[in-house]
Write a structure and sequence with these properties.
By secondary structure, the chain is α/β, with parallel strands linked by helices. It is 67% helix and 11% strand. The strands form 3 sheets. It has a 6-stranded antiparallel beta sheet with strand order 2-1-4-5-6-7. A 6-stranded mixed beta sheet has the order 8-12-13-3-14-15.
Length: 883
Amino acid sequence: MITSIELGDFLSHEKTTIDLEDGVTIFVGENGAGKSSIIDAITFSLFGKHTRKSNKGLIRRGNNQGYAKIKFSIKDKQYEAERKIDSKGSLNATLFEVTDNNRVQIAAGERKQFKESMTEQVEKIIGMSFEKLKIASIVQQGELNSIINAKPKEFKELLNAIIGIDKLDIASESMKKITKEFREENRTESGHDDTQIDILRKDSKKYQDELKKTKPKKDKLELQKKDLDKKITKLEGEESLEKEKKFNIGQLKEKTSDLENYVGNEIKKIEDEIDRNKGIIRNCEGCFKKLKQKAGFVKKLERATEEEIDAGNKIQEIKEQIGTLEAEQGGKKDKIVQLKEKTRDLQNYVDSKIKEIKDEIGRNKEIIRSCKGCFEKLGQKTGFEKNLKKATEEERDAHDKIQKIKEEIVSLKEQENLAEKLQLKDNKCPVCGSEVEELKPWLQVDHIKEKIIKLKQNIDSKKEEEDNHSQEKIESTNKLKEISAAETILDTYSIKNEEELVSIQKKIEVKEKKVSLADSKKLEDMSQIDEHAKVKFGEILELRLKTEGFDKAKFEKKINELNENIKSKEKEREAKDKEKNEFDEELGKIKVAETILDTYSIKNEEELVSIQKKIEVKEKKVSLADSKKLEDMSQIDEHAKVKFGEILELRLKTEGFDKAKFEKKTIELKQKREDKANNYKNLGIVEDQIKTAEKQSSEIKESILELEKVKDYISRLDNIQKHVFSRDGSVATSLRSWALNSISIKASEYLSVLNTKIQRIALSEKARDVSIACYSKTEVLELESLSGGEKVSVALALRLGMANLLGSSNLNLMILDEPTTHLDAERKKSLVEVLTQLSGIGKSQSAMQFLIITHDAEIFENEHVGQVHEFKSTEEGSKVTEL
């Protein structure tokens, strides 16, 4: 299993280290957060291979070098694999074995000519190459179906690698090597091997015949050589011309794409400019009309100002008349003025006090309204806290019981598998063969299935109980929030008990009585507001006594007449003031228009017309470029025209190019070169025949007697290799049959969890292929007839079935990249249940390791499926946090 992954300036990761455990590990995060980089880090550090376009693309942008390093354990041995890469594409690869914190280098580099290959060493340790590991254990994003889309022969090769039939190949190769060495030893001694006996018998006569035919054959081959040289020279010249045209076609595509991209960018700039200019025209609309009104409004403002001043002067004259009249009345007039001032002073004082009292009443009422019911809620706090604690404990208890039941179900399913294999036959034990009347209940399939059904019913009951406690938690939490809000309100107003609220209510009632008394508008009632008001009312009574005998009616009539004149003039002045404000407002609008025109540096209406014309010209260019015709697009500007000219030149250079004819010509040239090579070979053979024919004829008879003995011995070795060590022999066939049955059973179990119409999967070997068959309750289902979600379910089940089989292989690893693609909500939930079971497998003795990469983080909330690492994209690169 992999115990640690470290990335330095690798893809989107600046510096990331992730420690892993066995079981299930989930990598969650949005697209582009760097999750899939983990797959590239694993395969690159082990094999130097990845899913990106080039090695340079692995280096994080802005850096000159990067590295990926993983630590992994196999059969109690610890290893560390690291590969570094720089901007030149140079690689530095090292593999260490770690013992008691000591690192011993066991492989480095990839210079196979110097017998340096870290990849070969990794393949020996892991027991798989990159290609086989990728198909068996790495399910990349969007490639989950590759297992069912693989060709039957490829599937069989993959199966052979997984179950270790490759080791039979090694033994078979050893047998072949022994046979080959034996043959070579005999060939060294005698010059021939046992496969050549029949040939040697014929060769004796054949060599004699060949000597007679050799000369004309040699002459014919030499003529053929000259003809081939001439044809090859001609074809090479023609191919060179066509290659140049083919290159120009590639250039033509690049130039066309370049022009389209350039025009697209220019259209975006022009559209932005059009939007800006339209904004200028929209904002400047009506501004010049307002500027033409400026002089008229200035004159109207001056006239209204003069008329307002005149009305003010007349008001002052009337007031002076009133003053003269009041002066004639002597001291009484002064007393009357004082009386009015005192009266007005009392009224103003009372009004201000009433306002203060009303404000105080409002504040106190707000306190009472806000605090209403708060003390009642505080009394409930202890009860709801107890309810919340109790509901939380009961919910946790229900969840723990569900987990224990699920673990018991997993154990029972394994027990069920064992029970299916341990069935009585003729009342005999399948293990020891002793007489048994009945298996114990824990070994009876029906009994185990009944227990599983009851346990699943318990799970449903506990889930309902868990949901009820969760709802109780929510309700108690909401009530405690309301109580906390009540505490905050009481703290805000510093209210400690309900008596304080009663006291505030009494103060409100006293204040309201004072306000109602003062609102009567009678001076005597108003004076009751406070002691200061009473003093002022006493002063008013004294002044009333001092003004007795004054002809108030006559005096007031005259004063009223003068005041009416003042009011009339005041109205006249107010009207003029209103006109002034209206004119000021219009001049303000004109000033805004001037500001807008200054902002855009627009001096006259002709400039706006000019901007509108520019917009129309630009819009015509955009509409022309949007036609998608290159000639129209090139009219966007001179640079585009130059690019279009280059395209036209390339079109001329590629005229007449026929791809089919070019490929045909290439094939013809290749064939001629092969013919020429065969010609050289045949010519050499003929010349050798001439030299060796006589010698061989005499040596053949002596060799045949010795080779007959050799043939019999080798035949026995071949028989062993064919039936025992061959991958198509009885041993390999039996192993594959067992593996196919194991994968089928496990895949069917997983598929039943995913809740599809498919009841089981059966893998079978036919001839040299492995086929996949799916069964519903009533019929066989063709793979092509399955829906997208069902295909994903089948592929996932097979992957997990193979992963179960891989439990005894070296790396014990399964990676699923975005396994929820094409799965609906129900199947996603089922997938989480499968992963939960896998987590249990991971913690068992088989120590299987699963890495799940997904952006569907929400489906793992409140689920116990193992480690969860969250990936986030930041300005500093990908950041990984364990949740």
